[in-house]
Amino acid sequence: MGREKKKRKRRMKASDPTTKTTAHWWVQRRRTSQKS
């Protein structure tokens, strides 16, 4: 699962430049998940 999630992140970033801003929401969600 970890490896597939990493591949999807790279595809979204290269596919859509707008994902740069959307990446903020998934980054914040992943950080809160690790903190809690």
Structural class: mainly alpha
Total helices: the number is 2
Strand content: under 5%
DSSP summary, beta strand count: 0
Biggest beta sheet summary: none
Quaternary structure state of the chains depicted: single chain
Query: How far is it from the N-terminal to the C-terminal residue, by CA?
Result: 20 Å
Succession of helices and strands: HH
Q: Which runs of at least 5 residues are low in confidence (pLDDT < 50)? A: none
Radius of gyration: 11 Å
Helix content: over 70%
Mean pLDDT score: 63
Overall spatial form = flat
What does this structure look like?
Residues 1-12, 27-36 have a biased composition (Basic residues). Residues 1-36 are annotated as: Disordered. This protein is mostly helical and 36 residues long. It is built from two helices and no strands. It has helices at residues 2-15, 19-35. The longest helix is centred in the C-terminal third of the chain and has 17 residues, at 19-35. The protein is flat.
What's this model, at a glance?
The chain is an all-alpha fold and 36 residues long.
Task: For this entry, give a set of tags.
36 residues, mainly alpha, 86% helix
What does the secondary structure layout of this molecule look like, with pairings?
Layout: H1 2-15, H2 19-35
